[in-house]
UniProtKB/TrEMBL annotation:
Keyword check for Oxidoreductase: yes
Keywords: Oxidoreductase
Database matches in InterPro entries: AKR, Aldo-Keto_reductase, NAD(P)_OxRdtase_dom_sf, NADP_OxRdtase_dom
Residue intervals of the NADP-dependent oxidoreductase domain: 19-311
Name the record gives this protein: Aldo/keto reductase
SUPFAM superfamilies according to UniProt: NAD(P)-linked oxidoreductase
UniProt superkingdom: Bacteria
Record carries keyword Protease: no
């Protein structure tokens, strides 16, 4: 007996895409070991050759560098990729915080179109909830951009089921992007079900647990300076030994099933619903190839059950974010 089949493409904003897309952040932002621009463009071209047809970027990533890089890579190839980007988080210069006022949304879109060297973005997200602006006002502004042909669909990121329903009452919401993997389960509280009810695609970011479930982290202290994982509770010294034991057990399950840990984690995510797609990120072509190589493998239900028993809210040590980040997240959370 198997869980959800992963053999066919999945719907996203009226298009059918490979269930494994590409999160482009790693090429510009957040993690160590980033490639140079030429290597990054080569990776994006290789992704297209391999069958990746959904690229996800954001203004935040490298303060525009990531959109610029993606735009350069898509010259002459724009029609091959469903392109998603995000606005709303500001973390450089004089502006820091979240701003999803209608005028800001429009101004940020124009900048993104220029950097991406395109006249439209297929899916445009609010990167985080702006609690100073009614979600209805922000969605209304984005709906105007759809009417103008500048974006194809509206997405939300790290928002709650209630916010999603309020937004969808104004205009259909094509996608909700939220962190989701065996060791990050907040979306299971309400968001995944709400997406299913509303016909919204759930887009899982960090589906291999920021590298932990891709056998990519053995010693967090060895990560480069500036790598955001060094400040995340799950990778800190008081929590990591417990989490590493889970990783080792997970790796053993993958070996038994004849897949890599990353492939097992991705299959687990996709097996949780036919309305789910995943966007693992990487700066290495070898990982790019690995992530998509078994995209059509349907994880057996018995293996999913083993993973659920092994890695869950009770067994993982530490929250996914440090305390300063939590007020910016609208997604439901487990009681402490």
């Amino acid at each position: 007996m198997s869980t959800v089949s992963q053999i066919t493409s999945r719907p996203l904003a009226g298009r059918m895409v490979n269930p494994i897309g590409l999160g482009c952040m790693s090429l510009s932002w957040a993690y160590g070991g980033r490639p140079g621009d030429a290597e990054g463009i080569a990776l994006l071209h290789r992704a297209i050759d391999l069958g990746y047809d959904h690229f996800d970027t954001a203004r935040l990533y490298g303060h525009g560098h990531n959109e610029t890089l993606v735009g350069q890579a898509l010259k002459g190839k724009r029609d091959k990729v469903f392109l998603a980007s995000k606005m709303g988080i500001f973390a450089s210069g004089d502006k820091r915080g979240i701003d999803c006022h209608p005028d800001t949304i429009r101004a940020e879109l124009e900048k993104s179109l220029t950097l991406l060297q395109t006249d439209h973005i297929d899916l445009y997200y609010m990167h985080r909830r702006d609690f100073t602006v009614p979600i209805e006002d922000s969605v209304g502004a984005m709906a105007d951009l759809i009417q103008e042909g500048k974006i194809g669909a509206i997405g939300l990121s790290e928002m709650s089921a209630d916010t999603l329903r309020r937004a969808a009452a104004v205009h259909p919401i094509a996608a909700m992007q939220t962190e989701y993997s065996p060791w990050t389960r907040q979306a299971e509280i309400a968001v995944i079900e709400a997406c299913r009810d509303l016909g919204t695609t759930f887009v899982a970011f960090s589906p291999v647990a920021r590298g932990a479930l891709a056998n990519g982290v053995r010693d967090p202290q060895a990560l480069e300076e500036g790598d955001i994982r060094k400040a995340m509770p799950r990778f800190m010294a008081d929590n990591w030994p417990r989490n590493l034991a889970l990783v080792d057990a997970f790796n053993a399950l993958a070996a038994r099933e004849g897949v890599t840990p990353a492939q097992l984690s991705l299959a687990w995510v996709l097996g949780k619903g036919e309305h789910i797609v995943a966007i693992p990120g990487t700066g290495k072509i070898t990982h790019l190839e690995e992530n998509i190589a078994r995209w059509d493998w349907a994880i057996p239900a018995s293996v999913t059950a083993e993973i659920d028993a092994l890695i869950n809210q009770q067994t993982v040590a530490g929250h996914r974010y440090a305390g300063a980040m939590l007020p910016t997240i609208d997604t439901e959370d487990f009681a402490v």
